[in-house]
Specification:
It is found in: Cell membrane. With about 350 residues, this protein is of the alpha+beta class. The chain is about 65% helix and about 10% strand.
């Protein structure tokens, strides 16, 4: 009794395994019987893959690497800045690092920087056009706009003033920005231990990748320099105006001393009151000289501070023609096209057989 109970599941397992093997053989024979269809579809898929690889334009990538200089105020300059601050002048030596690290990478990908770059002038086929126009021509958008009165006369001139743009201009620039930020523009710090940032611009036009990469780096560098050194530049301009004003007053006081001395030449010693204007002019000369000396010192310190903060982005490697390109290879197209078509054909044949059995 016990032996029969033990043998039953074994027999059941053997039957199930036999049925499974039988089913596999049946499916194999069925697919083999359809080999002509599978082969024909596979060849068609390979041809389609080959055609795609021939039509697909290569992707050109322009790479620019740069280092961010985030130099803090050194001890040597700190004493000079302290002396200037004692006279109530802030030379801006304590500039912050609001664009350091990840903040700077986001600045490169910001819509404002990208759109300003798109309005930069470039030489394209012997004509000076904006990068936005170059992008539109490369993607053949203007052909679709010929029959649309809203877009037909839209032109992006180099260095156009953004405030005169219409909603249509904004919409087009927005679409270009979305396309570039999603698939073409990449800015990243490849190694957190190394303060070198790499920017990649990819497109199917070699010149656009090169021009856009260089123009974006220049645009961000100018904005970064102007923003971070703005305070030091303003202080330097104020000091320069004060120096010019005091120097003018000093020159006037020196001239006044000379005139007063001429008026008192061979003056009777008993008439000392007439020497008062000359004495007052002498005091003005001494006071203006002292003020001018301090202002000149502070002005020179401001220039040193501005020079110190100006070189903020140091380019290490710039893109050079010819750019590296990535093609969709012919062999890759044949293999992928053939495999996908064969896979889909086998799947459809299997579904059809299952439906017939049901």
């Amino acid at each position: 009794m016990d032996n029969k109970l033990i043998e039953k599941p074994v027999d059941s397992d053997e039957v199930s395994l036999k049925e499974l093997i039988k089913k596999i053989i049946e499916w194999k024979n069925y697919l083999v019987s359809q080999w002509k269809i599978i082969v024909i579809v596979g060849v068609v898929g390979a041809i389609l893959g080959l055609t795609y690889s021939l039509i697909k334009k290569p992707i050109y990538t322009a790479t620019l690497t740069f280092a961010l200089e985030d130099e803090k105020t050194g001890t040597g300059l700190g004493g000079a800045l302290g002396l200037a601050s004692s006279f109530g002048i802030d030379l801006g030596g304590g500039g912050g690092s609001i664009f350091s690290g990840s903040n700077l990478t986001e600045l490169f990908k910001s819509r404002s920087m990208v759109e300003k770059t798109l309005l930069s002038p470039v030489n394209y086929h012997g004509k000076i056009v904006s990068l936005a126009e170059m992008y539109i021509q490369n993607n053949k958008w203007r052909k679709n706009w010929d029959n649309n009165p809203r877009f037909k006369n839209i032109v992006f001139l180099p260095n156009s003033d953004r405030k005169y743009f219409t909603r249509v201009h904004d919409s087009i620039l927005g679409n270009i920005y979305q396309n570039l930020s999603k698939s073409s523009l990449s800015v990243a710090q490849k190694d957190k231990k190394i303060a070198i940032i790499s920017m990649d611009v990819s497109s199917n036009d070699e010149l656009f990748s090169l021009y856009f990469c260089q123009a974006l780096a220049d645009q961000v560098s100018k904005f970064y320099i102007n923003t971070k050194s703005k305070k030091a530049r303003m202080n330097m301009q104020i000091l320069e105006r004060q120096v010019d004003s005091v120097r003018s007053e000093l020159n006037g006081a020196i001239t006044g001393v000379a005139v007063a001395n001429d008026n008192t030449f061979n003056l009777n010693p008993a008439l000392n009151v007439r020497r008062a204007p000359s004495a007052r002019r002498q005091v003005d000369v001494q006071a203006n000289t002292a003020i001018l000396t301090e202002l000149v010192k502070q002005s020179e310190l401001a220039k040193v501070t501005l020079r110190k903060e100006t070189p903020l982005i140091q380019v290490i490697d710039s893109p050079i023609l010819p750019l590296p390109k990535e093609r969709f290879g012919k062999l890759k197209g044949i293999l992928i096209g053939g495999f996908l078509m064969v896979f889909l054909t086998v799947l459809l044949l299997s579904v059809r057989k299952l439906l017939k059995e049901l």
